[in-house]
Amino acid sequence: MPALGAMSLAASGAVGVASDLASAPDDRARMLPVHADLAGLFPWGGLRRGATVAVHGSTALLFALLAAPTETGSWAAAVGMPDLGLRAAAELGVAVHRLALVRHPGSSPAAVVAALLDGMDMVAVARGRLTDTHARRLSARARHRGAVLVSLGPWPGADVELHRGAAAWDGLADGHGCLSHREVRIRARGRGAAARPVETAVLLPGRGGGLGAVTVRPRVVSLSVAEDRGPI
Fold first, then answer.
1. Chunked mean pLDDT (size 10), the chain, 232 residues
2. I need a labelling partner for 71 at 20 to 30 A (CA). Which of 48, 122, 170, 210 fits?
3. What is the pTM of this model?
4. Beta bridge partners of residue 101, listed in sequence order
């Protein structure tokens, strides 16, 4: 869908009608789905409503988290990411007709994010000008409203932090061919039930696009966290 300004988004009716939580089954009200090959990174097996997730080092991983919820009827918003590409999002499985973009949230980004948390199932946000105080208040609002807050980059008090580790492309052979898929290692660590570090490997993108499986099960890892390698 086209990008929307903060005021036009509120006026459009997108906020408040994202998914009818009042009539949703109990399991849907508690959890948003993730791709099966990412489920082991979350102690709840999916994205628990009210949780805050911080994604480090990969816009592609952010898209992978948005894919399953938007494909199954949930609405999401992305705030403060002017260079976010809808084509790339679609290729990784995001139902872009259920993704609202607020590329430039204006002088009060915290207020924009707070308004979106009132009506959207998921809100992804770049830290930008948000202070630690803003961040904690927004996490509290997400918990109260039952939305999932996803940050691209560090976020104080995140329930789960996902770090993209080593990545390797495949498809080229002896100097010819096309890049077809990329194996990526992802580490997760957080608070409470998510305190034990877990690591898995996925194809991101997989062969033919989207997220693909690697024949490696999620495993417990040491407490050290791999260094971020930059976006996508």
1. 46 45 48 91 94 93 94 97 92 94 95 97 95 97 97 96 72 56 81 88 66 56 47 50
2. 170
3. 0.76
4. 3, 78
